[in-house]
User: Fold this.
Amino acid sequence: MAPLFRWFLIARIVAFVFPMAVHGQEISSRPAARCASVVDNQFADEVWARVGVQKCLTCHRQGGEATKSRFVLVDPRKVDGAARDQAMRSNLAAFTRMAGVKEKDKSRMLLKVVGELDHGGADVLKSGSAGYQVLADFVRRVNSPSAAPATAARPDQKAPPFFQGVAMLDDRRLLRRVTLSLAGRLPTEAELAMVIRDGQKAMPAILNAVMREEAFYERLREGFNDIFLTLGIDGNADQTVLSYEHFEKTRHWYQKHDLSHIKDKDERQRAEWKIADQYRLAILGESMRLIEHIVRHDMPFTGIVTADYMMVTPFSARGYGIYDEVKGKFKNPEDPFEYIPVKLKALVGRSKTENQESATGFYPHAGLLGTFQYLTRYPTTETNRNRLRARMYYQHFLGVDVLELAARVSDAAAVTAKFKVPTMQAAECVVCHKTLDPVAGMFQDYWRFADQGVYGKRKDGWFNDMFVAGFEGEDLPASERWRSLQWLGERTAKDPRFAVAMTEHAYTILTGRKVLLPPGDAEDPLYPAKFRAYAEQHHLTREIAARFAATGFKLKTVFKDWVMSDFYRADGLITVVSEPCRKAELDDVGLVRMLSPEQLERKIRAVFGEKWGKLTDQLAILYGGIDSKEVTDRATDPSGAMGAIQRTLSNDLACRHVANDFAHPAARRKLFPGIESGVLPGASVSGDQNIRKAIVHLHERILGSYETADSVAVERTFRLFADIVKDASAQKGLDKRENYFCRPKNQEGKESGSDDPHYTLRAWRGVVTYLLRQPEFLYE
Amino acid sequence: MRRDFLKCCSLTGLGLAIPRQSVVAWAPPKKDSPYPGPYYVVFNASGGWDTTFLMDPKGVNGINRLYKEGDILTRGAHMYAPIRKHAQGGMPNEDFFAEFSDGLLTFNGLDYSVNNHSPGARYMATGKLDSLAYPTFAALVAACHGATCPLSFLTFGNYSATGNLVAMSRVPYVQSLQKIALSDMVEGNPKAPYHDAFALDRIEQALRGGNEARAAVPRLPRAERGENMLYAAQTNSKALQRASQYIPSTIPRERLSQQAEIALASFKAGVCVSANLDIGQFDSHANNDTDQMKLIPEFLAGIAYLIRRAGELKIREQLVIVIQSEMGRTPNYNPGNGKDHWSIGSVMFFGKGIRGNRVIGATDEKQFALPVDPQTLKLDKAKGIRVRPEHIHESLRELAGIADHPLSKKFPLGLTDKEKLQKFWG
Assistant:
């Protein structure tokens, strides 16, 4: 195979390499010897990934600082399919061409990268660094094609498949994972029968059904709010989201709402407060309801940047002053949380200067981009000039963290002082601002600050000391300014990065973590292993994204693809892995997600029939939750504080449910349908068999593990039960009834079924406590 | 990572909940000894403080509108801006330096290198600009000195990445600490246990057996980490009950003081190694002087509160305090009377192992950083270096005795020996 063609093939895998950032990569121990690369990939995996995309592309591209140099690269992330392959071919050609150029017997390229020959980017690589060595190898190969690479990054053609030796979830456990994750419930008997009968082939149909359940849409909103955080708007939404300028007469409608039918003054006041609370929640929920609407109706997910409507409820519609227009569309006009799509008319201000321009007479909706909530959550300031919005736009919709693009500036203060407009003149600043500022300009007519709403033009016109409004080199035509966000949304939907970003969001929702970024430390001996881990995951991400785009951007297909993937199903190892490189490859494999407070409450409801109800507010934050405002990242590892909450939770749930479950007729029990509480261990063979069967049931219900009555795990649980009963028999003065706090109450509120003469009820409570503290319950 | 934990804890002599080999599960602590200190506190002025209104006063070239160069005050080696007349509440510089300058080390002319909040915060917190994987200093020192402490690394904001070395704890309110302190008791009532002691012992024994059994089968690295951390979190959480006795009955109103109380109760109980304390809104693009005159005194008052309360709790001598922000403010005012981002600033230190009454580094009359000779710590325009966060972090690691710790080695700061600041702590 010709080297060029081979590199070209590999380039398909890594064409979306992202520069600079590192995510969870440096933690593995470093072996003495460098890990071997998997295939002969010097250009794609080495030259391009380590040097090209990280050090060169930022400036050496169309529109970049070095656009007029003889070395101009193409960003393969911005194109798709054959165009992307062509981009990598073009880059290889550019590198090859430049590698052949010499300056007094020395490679011009190698001199440039260390800052010689007046390189505009100064020293992007240190002589002797791993990146430099990679480039030097490449130069040597180009100039002497028969030469073998000098570095240790040699091909390893015998490398096993990435998931070789990794055990996958069996079908029943996969089903449980899916129904709990996406619908907050246990599998039904019918679903279990389907997977037992048809194996994985049953999953697509089951997934289709699961993703039509209401609970799925709740999960969807929660997951996307973790990303967009639009619930995290400060203050009362009727004042911060709806401006005085445009909604002066309607935003406080609840204050004049007719509640005269409530005679008691205090009760009337409470009713008004309740309406106000529901109204504010309804406003806050609109953005995520837009996502729900798109997914529920299997509409193209590009709608999150192109939808020409917004979502309102009967309550929020009143705030916008459109209730009378749209009330006929609601199924229940009294439901504060029934959302329907509507088109808002162009805004009319208290003064004419604040009227919104619109060629259609309507507000230029652009999916989430133009919602008042998104614009309020990410506000602008006089000096920020919409750059926060531009940054969040890139991050949310194209998966690009703009702040990671720029490397260190040699003397940022001097640059700031030297140039009149550093963001347009200083190369160090232009790197980012040439991308960021045009998008910031797209938001130019949303120029109102905190508590003043979002829409409004800047009195003196948009800033002249910023790159003009546009997107990726295309200027916004003046005629399109009134609908700038729609113009941006249309281009976003066509950008290949959009599909990838949405696929990555789905992965985050399913796993609780972001996709891997390419390793940044070229000196790390584990670099090839880490890069392989990244490339494998990224390759699949791109495959799923491609299907997503090819099938009309139906988001449910992305969830289905991820669920059926090896990354989601990986569950263990067949044999111990001790080799550092392989460990590094597998470092991020496996779901192993500590459940969030919301997920844990849902799982508790699924297992016990009701939520614990305590993982809210302060305790939710303490348990790693978010408030979408100041705390925006969920904790992924349990601290001691969270361990304490887990103890309380397991104690309390067992206390609440064990005796209570036994108090019900056997047919209605969730935990102990096949045994009575008084069965003593060791008293009879049949009694012990009965206890073991009960334990098998508990393992399945609480932990999702399918044990046999003689398994090691069941034996351990049996011993716990038996030992507690035995220890109790040796205690003197023990109460013959269940703990006061754990006694069941009948419908009249009187104690019932709390007798526990042999301590078996409390021993079962110990068993349930024990099971609830295990990772199989607390993790996904 | 498992071995690193083991090494780390063997260094500290703490009880472990850590396996020795891959087939051995994490064991509960052999002894339940409280972590004795030092206690590391990072105070962060989030948003970017105006150092010229604090420890790096100028009063020239229009840098400050509230005072002139001749108004600048001194206390020992420290120079500071006079703000008593303008301060809105809190503690003015005059009082802060009068009380603490003897123990205070200031570094002026720190080159943050960037002008944006996010990378700036990351850089100041970790010493590494171009990686999302590095742990903050507070997390790193917690992992090295007390990974098994139940609240080893507390954070109230600011960049708080842990590098997967240690769990991060958020305790939003003092009352939250009380809620979790007695987790095996009904509603935290010490007289109302859920389980009889013998039953609870059996539960713990069974969990230990289950944990050992899990460790005996091959696991994915991620599963191994997760299961070990979970078991350790639950096992070590019992130590939280020690904290309940130090939770104050009266809760201060000020936000930093509230954070300080949670951190101090956790320190005193020996369940915490480090804490990020943070207040925001320093990003004074509009009306810089008004904002900074409100926030700087509030910030200083919070620091003073922590130190004084630590004295009352008799742990002041064990405190190590870093006082920082992610950027400075420009030497000129913008048209909105605000100041924008400036990549030059300062950092202050106080506490155990730090010789105070010293100022290292400087900025010139236009608020540019002056190079420092890392060997002598004197200004040297010709041969000095631009001191950046990695230099500060290397020194912090040395101060904490973790510079050569295996966990620190995982996250190298890339300095040569010649670049390291010598005798920085005096």
